[in-house]
Structures are given as structure tokens and as C-alpha cells.
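Self-study notes.
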Amino acid sequence: MEISCAACGTAAPEGARFCSSCGAPIDIRRPCVCGEPLADGARFCSACGRATARPAEPQAERRPVTVLFADAVGSTAFAERVGDEAAYRFVQDCIALMATTVERHGGTITQFRGDGVMALFGAPVAHEDSAVRAAVAAIELRDALASLATERGCSFRIGLSTGPVVVGRVGDDVLMDYTAIGDTANVAARMEAAAEPGTVLLSDATWRAVRQYVECRRVGDLDVKGKADPVVAHEAIRRRARLGAVRRARSRTRSLAELRGRPRLRPWTRRRGHG
């Protein structure tokens, strides 16, 4: 792009900050990615509408989370049988059900994958019982989706894994997603792929975190792509009845701890000469 001095009109070489003829500052208007010169202070390009400000550098952090993957099985045959419009409405109903259930248990859906989702428990909002929340949400999803999908000839399978991941926003100024990257997310995806239709499969780390609150059945060792050693998998059967009592007990324990942390109040005593 040719640059000229606004004061005297002398052409200036690219990168020049001052005019070589009169010494005036060169008005450098950086171009948009489409090539259109940008006016000073412009927030959007007048030619393509793209935002001109560079987005802030995405912040990432390592967090312990439980990753949930849920996906439909048999949806292709279902779509071929009923047509694209009916299949679209069915997927929308399933996605809405999954989003409601995940959010009710404190999770966050980070990706919509056609007829499935990826969800995080423990980020961006941290919970001390994120694995339990994820497992209970997965069991509720399994049962709710079964009644919705079985009559249509398809089913859902769900996989979970617990461990550290790097979470943050990835993308550019056009598309930005909050997601988790790491081995835990990979294992969760493999658990979902290995699960039988209509079941919830947990990694060994998730099972250790939820076994007191969720009844499980050991499935065995699975050869997972990308892992040198087999991964132990467990099927989540049902939530134990004691889960609600445990959560209430934890709430009472926190309340008592807060009371114990307060300064001790002196008992009221009548002062001499008063009343």
C-alpha cells in the first residue's frame, strides 16, 4: 500500500514514521486483512465489517475437571428413514435436554457436535464434587434420552473421565470457544466411543471419585488409541440413595465450620450501677 505525507504529499517508503521532506509524522493507516485501509480509530472495516481490534490473548489455566461426551448411535439411519427435517427437530430436542440437565448439575457445555455434546464439570465454575455432579448428570441423561430416542430407533452413549486439563478460550477474532485440552478429554472421548448404546462409561479416575455415591460395574481393561497401557473402565448403573444425605451433611459441616471461625461473643453481664 502506497503511503504519502499528509502535509506535503511526498511519497514515503513502507514503515516510515516521519516525512523525509518536511519532517511531519506519517499517518500510517494499517490495512484490514481484506486489504482495505482503516481510518484512525476505526473499530470495524468499512469494506468487510470485520472487527479491527486484535482480541486479547486467550488465557489458559490447568484445572482438575470431569469431561463428559455424549453422542447418538444410529442417528444416520434414523435421518435416512424420517427425513432431514424430522431428524433436525429430534436433534434439537435432544440437545435442549442435554443442555438443561448439564446446567442443572453445574456443568458447562463447551461443544455441540452434530447430535452430541462435550461438557465440563469443574470449569469454568469449580465444584469440589464435580465428578459426582458429572456422573449423576450422565445417569439422568442416559435415562431421559432413552425414553426420547428408543422409539425413534436410535440411542445415546456417554463417556466420562476425570483429571487435569488445560482450559481456556481457543480460536480467533471470528470464532472463540471455551474448551479443555489434555489427556483427560481424550480419554473421555474414548470412553464414549467404547460405551455400549444406552450406557455410561467411566474412566478409573472418575470411578474412584464417585464410587461412594454412584453404583458401578467394572467393565474391564480397554485398549485406547494413543495410550500405551490399557484403561480401566466402569459402567455407571445408578446413583446411590445416600448422595442427597451426603450433600446435606457437607452443607451442615460447612455451616458449622463458618460458625466456629467467628470470634467468640462474651456473654452479656449486668454492669454495676445499671438497671
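Second protein, same conventions, sequence then structure:
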Amino acid sequence: MLDLMLCKTWDDKPLTGKRIAEPKEDGWRATWQEGKVWGRDRGRGMAQYHHPRPLIEELEALPWCELDGEMFAGCIGDTASVIKTGKPELIERTHYDVFDILSLEGESLIGLPYSERRVILASVIPPDASGFVRNLRPFKFQDLSDPMALAKLAVENGFEGLVFKDLGAPYLPGIESAYWTRLKPIEDEDVLIVGALMGKDSLVGTLGALLVENATGDRFKVGSGFKREDRSRLWKMHQAGTLAGQTVSISKQADGKIVGRFSRFIRLREDMLCPS
């Protein structure tokens, strides 16, 4: 079984090669191989996913092939439920967005340029397919010189970000390659501290997470990005009753659906007075 080719995160440098921009949904990476749906199991190899039967029937009706794509059921939580438990009430809105074909009728295709694999994929799954199995269509951007602006546009349209793929690239199983460059916009924001939670395990007796509120009144937790000295200092402030009401700068993934996603602490805004 082939391992999956992995994306590299955009490093703020100009993209090289002739590329297309594919939407990144907030789903689970999935591959169709050996007549089953598989995914990566946190670096421990490939694990078999639960099989929504209608989706499997569509895959079985295709010519014999191996595919790579993303499973999506409307949001990351529902997708996880389908994959882990096969939750029946979610299956009707589950679809498999295929963006690559690895083999067809026993012939390996991974050495071909991505542009050629996309043509072959379109012959197996038409671009206008609208069932459980679909052909992931790239955006028709004419200019890719500002990847961040394009990724923010994708987020505004309900996607998690973009993957910029080199049309001349082969498929590299198990390799994290800049041929596929992923961009999920990150935003900085100042938020108000409204509470704090003590840590667990090695963080017992110090800060585990801040409870914060943004300008629109949404509350969420910030639990990463802290140095050990940050955790100690902020927890002492919490115990002294001087933490709530302070402002902190955080970074977070831009997301139109999940507030405060992947939030990370940057610094305490000591230049901003605590409101009375």
C-alpha cells in the first residue's frame, strides 16, 4: 500500500513552477486502495476508516484504481464521527473529494506529472460528478502571485485554506514536499482575559489555558504558545486576582466557522490598561 504524499506549509516565499490552487476543506485525508478507505494514523502507518456503504458502492463501480482525496461531512467533528463510527445519520452528507489518481487498471501513475494525472482522473471521475465521490476542482485563479490573499478568499468562501500544487510534479508517497504547498491563513488578535484554568499532569500548579473573549463577545480557550515562565507568571496573577480583565495578543487560524481555532498565546499586552 502506498503512503500519502504530504504538503509543506507555505514559507512566505514566491511559489515556483506552474501551479494550480485547490481548495482545502476541513475534512480528513483519505485514500482508496485495496478496495477500502484508509487514512494516516498519526504517523503510525495507515488505518482503515469506517465505510459509508453508499460511498463505497460508488467507488466499487469505478474502473479499478487507487485514489487520494479528502473525506468531508460538513465540518471536522461530523467527518470524524463518520470515519470513526460510521454514524448513519451523517452519511447522506458525506462525500469524498478526490484530487489525485495513483494507479488505474493495475498501472502505476505516480511517476507522471500531476497535470497528466488530473486528466486521467477526469476520465474516471468527471469534474461535474455530484454523488458521494467527486472530482475536487481547483479554483480558476489567473494570478497566484499573492497566495495569502487567495487563501483568505478561500476562507471567506467556507474553505480551510488552499493547496498550491505543481503541475509538473510526480506523486511522492510518504514525503512532505514543497511541490504541494499548503496555506491556512493565520491572524493576530487582541482578546480580553476572562478566566484561567489550571493545567494537568506536568502543568499541575500552573496555567493550563486562558479563557478569553473577543470583540464580538465569543469566548474560547487559549492553551498553547506559552513558555513555562509565562504559565507560572500568569497563574500567579490569576491567583492574586489581577489576571482577569487584562488583554493578550494571540494568533489563530482564520476560520469562518470555528471561533479561536488553533489559538496560540503571543504576549500579555501590558501596554494596555486593565479596564476598571
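Instructor comment on the second fold: The longest strand covers residues 186-198.
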